[in-house]
Every structure is written in C-alpha cells, then in structure tokens.
Write a structure and sequence with these properties.
With 370 residues, the chain is of the alpha+beta class. It contains 9 helices and 11 strands. 48% of the residues lie in helices and 20% in strands. It is flat.
Length: 370
C-alpha cells in the first residue's frame, strides 16, 4: 500500500484509539446497553423530568459510540478501496480513496475535540451576549462585525441563531445584542469565546484614514432547564434508625421509629422523628433529603453565575483575550493559547474552529498522548 495511505491509516487509527480511551470503551458500551434498556421500560415516563435526563444521557453516549464505530467502518471501507485501486494501478480511484481518508481524518480530529466536551452544560444551547466598548461608532461597528462572525460560525455548523435582544448603534453596528445559539454542544464550543475582543484597523469612518483600536465584549452562558431533577441513588444513602425522644405516641420509647438519612457523596444528613411510625418518618426524611439536595444544586448554580459575573471586566486595554489586527499587517492572535493566523477575513467570516479547539484543549490539559 502507498506510503501516504499508510500514514493516513496510522493517524486515523491513533485518533480512534484515543477516542476509545477517553470514552472508557467497554464500560461505555455497558452503560449504553443499560440506558437502552431503561428507555424501553414503559414506567420510565412516570417521572417525565427524570426520563428526559435519561434520554439526554443516552443520546450523548450513543452519539459518541456511533462516531467511533462509524470511523472504524469507513476507514476499513476506504482502505479496502485504496488497496484494490493500488493493485489495479487505477490512479483515479486511488486519488478518490485518498480523498475519503482525508475526510475521515478530519472527522476523527473533530471527534477528538468533541470528546473533550464533558462538562455538565457543554451539550446545551448557549446565550451569547455582545456589547460594544467605549468609542462610539467604531466600537459599535466592531460589535456588529463580531455578531456577523458568530452567526456565520453557527450557521456553518448547522446551528440555529435566535435574536433575543438588539440595540443598534446610532450610525453603524450595534451597542448590544443577545443571541440564543441552538445546536449540539453549542455552549461547549462557544464558552471559550467569552472575554474582550480587540480590533486594530484603518477606520472607514475617519476621513483622515487614521488607525483606530476598538473593543467589544462577548459573554457566553449555557441554557439550562429550570427544572432541577434530584435523582437520588438509594445506594448513596445510609439509613439509620433509633429510638425517638419527645412526643410521638405511646410506643415512642419502645421501637426504633426515628430515621436518619446520610447522603454519602455530599455528607448531607437529615433526620425525622415526629411521625408515629418508622414508615412515616422515613417518607418525611426522604422529602427533607431531596429538598436539601435541591437547595445545594441551586447554590451551585448561583455560584456558577456569580463566577461568570466576576469574569466580566472593563471593555478595554489589558483585558482582551484576542486581537484582530487588520492594519498595518494582517493577524488574528489569541492571547491565551498563542494560536494565530494571517487569514483575518476567514476568521471574520466565522472560521473559528482552530481558536476554539486550542482553548478547549488547554482547559482540560489534553494532548494526543493524554
């Protein structure tokens, strides 16, 4: 087989092996079988919210497993086609096989990155908020350019963009806009774009043709379901019974009617002894435990929102995450990952994948060897 075909084969096989390790392949297959079985259970939908959580997990895992199986199947087919073309000396067919391998390699690279999107909200839709900085028309125009850039990126990836709020600039561009980007892993990809973006160019609004620097901020939030599902695994809860003290009936000191529940993962402890029977106290204790865990989840979400708010900085010098220089040279550079390109027009047209991928990999400390 030709050397370039062998090289493509090795590269794709390395990606597949990496995807299997990240998925923890055999346990992932067993988990998917369990989820498929739960989906077939008609009683699952007795609790619609819990059922939706199961369906989301099943869809996420099935998508990842199917991606690996599809890469393996298509690689085998392409290699078989290449081998046959090589044996017959059919250069046209061999070139077609090379094209197939190139497409498979690109899919594998994309799958590697998507495997890193393991955060709780990464698969969710995203709110994107863009605000112009100081500078009037210049900054408003720059914010409008960012709006176009992200809209084009979303459309290129098959995502839907819905405008929720828009305040236009007085002469050009926008002062602010809020979008909802709907699509698989929208938040996982876009979350790395949060921060201040800096533009350097010759202003089209300056009659003297002087170079101007403009700033705009981009903030990204996950779209979350308001209904928090508290699904407690009984094996995570230790139940202790003991004799109640105080009011509770004539048998209060004769039986272990009081119930204490300990949720082991969070160390939340609740107890109830007000009921006349252990059954009543157990039922009430479980209600208390669900309420406590619900409150913990609310606190967690509030803390996450506060952390996002704290990240917001002045829209100006010293706070930018990425610079877009159009004059005196052409360069877009991410100041966090050092990724840069001279294809400024491509970036402004929505070609952001290289920047997003580098930031995503940096966040999780991922490498091909990892």
């Amino acid at each position: 087989m030709r050397a370039d075909v062998e090289a493509a084969k090795a590269d794709i096989e390395q990606s597949i092996a990496l995807l299997r390790r990240r998925l923890d392949w055999e346990p992932a297959l067993r988990k998917l079988d369990e989820l498929n079985a739960r989906v077939e259970d008609p009683t699952l939908w007795d609790k619609p919210e819990a059922a939706q959580a199961v369906m989301r997990e099943r869809t996420r895992l099935a998508t990842q497993v199917d991606a690996v199986k599809g890469l393996e199947r298509d690689l085998s087919d392409a290699l078989g086609y290449a081998e046959m073309a090589d044996e017959e000396g059919d250069e046209d067919s061999l070139e077609e096989a090379r094209g197939q391998l190139k497409a498979i390699r690109e899919r594998a690279a994309r799958a590697e990155l998507e495997a890193l999107l393991s955060g709780e909200a990464d698969g969710n839709d995203a709110f994107v908020e863009i605000n112009s900085g100081a500078g009037g028309t210049e900054s408003n125009d720059w914010a409008g350019m960012l709006l176009r850039m992200y809209t084009r990126w979303a459309n290129a990836h098959g995502m839907e963009v819905e405008f929720l709020e828009e305040t236009p600039g007085e002469q050009a561009g926008i002062k602010s806009v809020t979008l909802q980007v709907k699509g698989t892993n929208a938040y996982g990809w876009l979350k790395s774009e949060g921060g201040v973006h800096r533009l350097v160019r010759i202003s089209p609004y300056d009659a003297a043709a002087k170079r101007h620097t403009s700033f705009a901020s981009v903030w990204v939030y996950p779209v979350v379901d308001d209904n928090i599902v508290i699904d407690i695994n009984p094996s995570d809860v230790r139940t202790d019974t003991y004799r109640a003290s105080g009011a509770g009936g004539q048998h209060i000191n004769k039986t272990d009617s009081a119930v204490r529940l300990t949720h082991i993962p969070t160390n939340v402890v609740v107890a109830c002894q007000s009921g006349r029977s252990q059954h009543q106290n157990r039922e009430e204790a479980w209600k208390m435990l669900r309420a406590r865990l619900y409150e913990l989840e609310l606190q967690k979400r509030d803390a996450e929102r506060a952390a996002i708010e704290e990240q917001k900085t002045d829209i100006g010098w010293g706070h930018q995450i990425r610079s877009y220089v159009l004059q005196p040279y052409q360069m877009v550079k991410d100041l966090r990952t050092e990724v840069e390109t001279s294809d400024t027009q491509g970036v402004l047209d929505g070609d952001l994948d290289a920047f997003m991928a580098a930031s995503l990999a940096q966040r999780v400390g991922a490498t091909r060897e990892g």
